[in-house]
Each structure stands twice: as C-alpha cells, then as structure tokens.
Write a structure and sequence with these properties.
Blueprint (H helix, E strand, L loop, with lengths): L1 H4 L3 H12 L3 E3 H8 L3 H13 L3 E6 L2 E6 L6 H12 L2 H10 L2 E8 L10 E9 L3 H15 L2 E7 L8 E5 L2
Parallel strand pairs: 5-6
Antiparallel strand pairs: 1-3, 2-3, 4-5, 4-7
Length: about 170
Amino acid sequence: MLDSLVTSKTRIKLLLKFFSHSNSGYLRSLAKEFEESTNSVRVELNRLTEAGLLLAEDEGKTKVYKANHQHPFFSEIKGMVSKFLGLDDLMERIVKRMGDVQRAYIVGDYAMGIDSGTVELILVGKNLDEKYLEFIKDKTYEKVRRKVKVEIMEEDPGNLNGILVYGT
C-alpha cells in the first residue's frame, strides 16, 4: 500500500521511522540503521525537510532530524504509517502492559516498507509478560489481519537491522 504511493524505499523507511513513534535521528545513524548509503539517506532527508515534513536541528556539529508535528499533514501521514504497520495499538498495549520494555524494533519486510502480511518485532527488556504477548498477538491478527512474530531479547546486541519504534 505505502510502497505504491511512495516509490523511494529510503523515503518509506524514513517516514516509518519518524512517523511511527516520536523518533529522531541523524544522517550516519540512519544510514547505518537502514543499511543504505549516506548519500541516499541525505537526499531523502533533504526532500522531506524541504517539504516541511521533517525538522532539522543542530546539536553541536550534528544535524538531528525529527517529524514536524506542526505540518498540516502530520496527522494524516502518522495515520497512514500506523495503518501500514498495523502496530499502533499493539505497541501502545505492549509498552503499557508487558513490563520493562526498553526498545521495540520492527524488522523484516515491514522494516523495508513491504506489506508481506507478517509483522516481525523484536522487544528488548527483562521479565516481560509473555502470556500477555500471546493474547495481544491474537487480538492484533483479528484486528488488522496480519500475523505477528515477536522475539524477546533481554539485551540489545547493538546490531539489529530494523526500525526502532519505541525507546532510544
């Protein structure tokens, strides 16, 4: 769905990153996270900033990007991204009820902007409520008709390839 509207895979990744949760990022970290060249990420960051969808702020020598909550289409884009992911409700419930969730990543096809019908998540945290997670996965399937696979890790290995949708 989203990939038929937006032809740039890098732009899709940036929209997912910035509009799925209140994330921010800088050029090199985004390029590394997306496994893309800094040039392709820079081009899309510039386009989204010029369109007013992203804000760029200087933090020392680093330019940090984040979604522009004041943009007239902010709510619509956030809604499209949430529907594309089918995870807005799931993430909210997980964070509130699962225990000490430190980070949540979307990995696999959805992280690349492809709607394959299976959403893969990695949750990082300790003593998470796995029984509740099974209940939420079933409810999510009923609601958005997408299978949800979740892997739980106690520690972030630091090399996860996906989109960080919760945590820092």
